[in-house]
Amino acid sequence: MAELKKGDKVSLTSGGYVTIEKELGRGGQGIVYLVDLNGEKKALKWYLNAPDDKFYKNLEHNIMSGAPSAAFLWPEYLTRKEKGSYGYVMKLRPQNYFEFGNFLLAKKSFRSYSAMLAAAMKICNGFMMLHRCGYSYQDLNDGNFFIDPTTGDVLICDNDNVMPQGEKSGIMGKARYMAPEIVAGGVPDKYSDRFSLSVILFMLFYANHPFEGAKVVACPCMTETFEKKFYGTEAIFIYDPADKSNLPVRGIHQNVIRRWPAFPAKLRETFIQEFSQDKLKNPNTRMIESLWEKLIAGIRDTLVRCPHCGEETFIEESSKCMDCGKDIDSTHRLKIGTRSVILTKGTKVYIDNDNIPDAEVVAHPNDPSKLLLKNLSNSNWTAETPSGKIKVVEPNNMMPVNPGIKITFSNTHKGEFIQETNN
Amino acid sequence: MSLLDEQVSVPRRTMTLFFLIDTSGSMEGNKIGAVNDAVANVLPMLDEISAENPDAEIKVAALEFSSGVNWLYSEPKLASDFVWQDVKAGGLTSLGAACAELSTKLSRSGYMQSASGSFAPAIILLSDGGPTDDYESGLNKLKGNNWFKAAIKIAIAIGDDADKDVLKQFAGNSEAVFTVHNIDALKQIIRVVAVTSSQIGSKSSTAGDTTKQDQVVEEVKDAVENIQGAEAATAVDSSSYDDDWD
Ligand SMILES: [Zn+2]
After folding, report:
1. What is the pTM of this model?
2. A3 within some domain
3. Do B3 and A322 count as a contact with CB atoms less than 8 A apart?
4. ipTM of the prediction greater than 0.95, yes or no
5. pLDDT, tens digit, for every residue of A275-310?
6. Last residue of a domain, one of A274, A294, A314
7. Contact between B130 and B239 (Cβ < 8 Å)
């Protein structure tokens, strides 16, 4: 064990060194220090007990390969083995990001549903990129995710335990977040990661755990043996339609009881599927990340600003605002492939999955009953009117939301305005 | 929006950290002073671990035993509410009575009555001598208690007069008994053991095969290497020699 002190210099394998300024925090494995690298502030994770050579080599490899996506606070430099241990350097986590655990403890909450959906999208994308690079995430728990409550942007930390699939880092995640087959002793892979992803997403949306219902609450002493049962061999989804023995308990699981019926049906249906006994036991049937992205995009398409009270609301069959209860005209739509984006005044439209709004619906300045679509992106849109005229909509310019107009947002994204008939 | 604003904390289990403190006459002076100082100082650290932890909140209970036994509070308290009253040394070492008393409280009708359930407790026993009462009947009762069986158990032997064999029986094996030889080491080990067992005990367990008890023992062992005057159980267990040559 080797702690560092202010002023200590630790050399990097790439040459140069970092200088210790102060301790930022510590955990079971090591200490995180604020360090200076050539005038730039960085974070150094320093292991109290140097893990083995294999771990060092894996870190070296991950640093060489680079971060799978911007969601990862990825190791950037490796230190030499000196002062009795070693560590790695990464970017500092900005102040406006908070541990996912703080959201669970209700110390922090999302400022909007858009932020919540943005966080979900970013996590899905992070996992997709991680798997695309051939890694699996081993040490998954609520301490690894940091989220900006305002924007929903996500940083995934503690990536030193990311390993190529099929290998085991030896540092295991919390049973609560791991797939049943991993709780039972298996090696994490992309299939088990997908399970963990669905647990994280469930907790992000509903702020309770998908397997903690009546059955689990009734257990007076959660021993390790019981955890292996409740998250492993005998895991039962709290809303499993086939087994109601583990329903959420009033007064204890308040968040999910309130949100489950209020949030979109598509989300409910997906979680019921993903947490069915069949998928618990058949890892390769779990939903892939790109389908999660598609689901979240689809839900975002139904999230609108209420023109009456100005709050966000999900529109499903009923077009009533979740907040003020008034009817919302949801007939104006933008069709993009199979998607149907609902357009109401004040609603932001996300054409792709990068969490940056590409368009905003605004009221016509002379006739508030008419809607316009404003180009918030950096590139020109090309529109084709029903009579065949071609118009270019430059960034910050607007176009009328008139049925029949076709728009090319980019090579991959083309849409058309339609008006649905009110039943 | 309103749904997001109405969010409440996820339900948390409770993890109770028990201090069992030998306050017999031999503890008088530096030893008891160090214990008082160390526990009072570790409470804010436990509070911090508890506040940031979505799995469980940590409560603290302390039982002192000398000629009799006495709980410092009549129920486990959050570390932030636990005002440490210095314990005083004097009298005998009623370890058996302490074990029996602990066993009574390790039950749902005793101290383990949290509405959203508990994690297995962590129990730290500190002693500098040997029991003066019939410890076996008390200890046997405790060993039959399911909460105790599942608990993280660490014993701290203060000096060479501590009866390590009894401490070993309490903690389950000699690995979970740590010995300290000076006041500074005593303070440090109390901090390390309390923090480590709280951190590990109050979290959902890891998906691997190592038990929480093993994880705590491993981490404390690592820490002990850097504490002058503290030692983990070594290959040479002197108590076994004593037994053989008596
Ligand atoms: Zn409204």
Report:
1. 0.91
2. no
3. yes
4. no
5. 999 999 999 999 999 999 999 999 999 999 999 999
6. A294
7. no
